[in-house]
Amino acid sequence: KKKQYGECMRKATLDLDSLPVIQNNLYQEHPNISLNNQREVVDWHRSLQKTCNGQNVPRPIV
Question: What is the arithmetic mean of pLDDT over 45-52?
């Protein structure tokens, strides 16, 4: 019988409770973006035909 790739590999056992919590708080607003008022941000989104829905939508990164 011809061996298949990975045939002799063991299945990984992961204890999901022991994994560290991933924090999704990486966004830091650039000071130049902070200077834009909300109207400028909305106009910027419209100029790119971009739609953002939800609460606490981050301001543009560019």
Answer: 88
